[in-house]
Design goal:
Length: about 280
């Protein structure tokens, strides 16, 4: 008799530098593809693990969540050990547990938190800093001085429920603005609109052995494709004095990608945590 499949929740952490993102792609190394292959080697089963979000190429995850159905009767702690023995060192399974059949890593999500790390090369009255090579894969090495207070002023404009079309990866023209295929969420899924709720948005300074970083943390109900990186690029323009923080409400109202700032590089972005109903 074939045993019934059990639903699993996996907590996964990875360095996204060498991957073409989370989602499996033909002839490309992806996190989802490596995890699927590892499950096959360990259990003899080949299900495609579903992630809480499809992080882009070069984006990292401190806590990615994946759900997958397996028939193998393996204890959770043994599954973690076995997967980590066969996965690339840049991917680690932190924990594994059984969950109810209706749990889905993406569809069950109620909130996500992202972090973006910035190494500031120039600080007032200090020599120019060089980003250490051991840190360069995980930060945006920024060449202009930044004001933490001004960055936080800018960050507060994003809190609340807004139409974030100006910060989406695409900028549809007026004739297609209401099309369901012109706006994508962070998973590349077509969206009817760009309205999202941001619960918190702030910057803080973080001390590391290689020097202090400026870290942006944003928690929201969901995000559009490239939305966090576009928010960061816009705020960095504000933080260096190129754009006033007071212009951000106008950017939001414009509903046009060209109205906002540039897209920050992928390497500084981390999926920090994912939340589900209790």
């Amino acid at each position: 008799m074939i045993p019934a499949a059990q639903n699993w929740k996996l907590i996964v952490s990875y360095d996204g530098t060498d991957f073409r993102g989370w989602q499996v792609q033909p002839e490309q190394m992806t996190v989802q593809g490596e995890l699927q292959a590892a499950l096959d080697r360990v259990t003899g089963e080949n299900p495609l693990p579903q992630g809480s979000g499809r992080t882009d190429a070069g984006v990292h995850a401190l806590t990615q969540v994946a759900s997958v159905a397996l028939q193998a009767g393996i204890p959770p702690e043994n599954l973690v050990l076995a997967l980590n023995r066969t996965l690339p060192e840049s991917i680690r399974v932190i924990s594994a547990m059984h969950v109810p059949p209706d749990f889905h890593a993406r569809h069950s999500t109620v909130a996500k938190t992202y972090e973006y790390h910035v190494f500031v090369e120039r600080c007032p009255d200090q020599p120019r800093r060089i980003c250490p090579p051991f840190l360069a894969r995980y930060v945006y090495s920024y060449p202009w001085p930044l004001s933490l207070a001004v960055l936080n002023d800018a960050a507060q404009h994003f809190v609340g429920t807004h139409d974030f079309l100006s910060f989406a990866a695409t900028d549809p023209d007026q004739s297609t603005r209401n099309s369901e295929t012109t706006i994508e969420d962070e998973d590349g899924e077509p969206q009817k609109n760009a309205i999202r709720t941001i619960f918190s948005s702030s910057w803080h300074e973080q001390q590391t052995p290689d020097g202090n970083l400026l870290v942006y943390r944003v928690r929201g109900s969901g995000f559009l494709h490239h939305m966090v990186r576009n928010l960061v690029g816009t705020m960095l323009d504000v933080g260096r004095g190129y754009t006033p923080a007071a212009a951000i409400p106008e950017m939001i109202t414009a509903r046009a990608r060209a109205a906002a700032g540039p897209t920050a590089p992928a390497r500084g972005l981390f999926l920090h945590s994912v939340e589900y109903p209790e």
